[in-house]
Amino acid sequence: MKIDVLTLFPEMFDPILSSSIIGRAVNNGIIQIDVYNIRDFARNKHKQVDDYPYGGGHGMILAPQPLLPAIGHVLSKSNADRSTVIYMSPQGKVLNQDMARCLAQEPHIVVLCGHYEGVDQRVIDKFVDIEISIGDYVLTGGEIPTMVLVDCVARLVPGVLGNPESIKDESFSRGLLEYPQYTRPQEYEGYTVPEVLLSGNHREIERWRLKESLRNTLKKRPDLLKEAELLPHEIELLREIQQEMDVL
To answer: Which residues have C-beta within 8 Å of that of residue 200, sequence separation ≥ 6?
Structure first.
């Protein structure tokens, strides 16, 4: 996978591109991430990238020049059979795991980091395939949302994670939150590991994990259960949990 990022602050991306799982994937050639400074495509003497909005209003708008030539440049360099141009915007569709899975299958992604009061609409009309938000709030720029998107998508690319099975039971993988996790020691300051996890009975452990996954989702994100496609035995477990909660 190839990811190109267009930003006014390329130095912000140095830590994530050289650290942890993403840095290792880049070093191993599993994904390629290039960051471009939008100012490098400005044709005016002062490298100005913004201007006042027509019709008045507060703030500044990123102008078509240099954005149009910047996006055109990275698209022209791509050898992929298709490219997806993303604009990180509070007006976009909210990023979720299903969207991340779809994007992880794309050969080439171009991400535009917005700034100031946004970008000239003509840039969106000409190049942008999808606007994406990371939540219903406003940040000072699109750099942090872009880092979230890159991390969320890149880890789903085959080979990025050492153990691909670790993705299978993650939160949101099936529309449910993940079950609680424990490690050694068995007892710490009076807190103990559930006995079932020490039993060696894999069938009971799987049942416990499923039940606790359902319990977590019901307690923390009940809205997810409205969309989850539960199997009959999962529905039965959910009823069991609801009865237990009613007793409490």
So the answer is: none
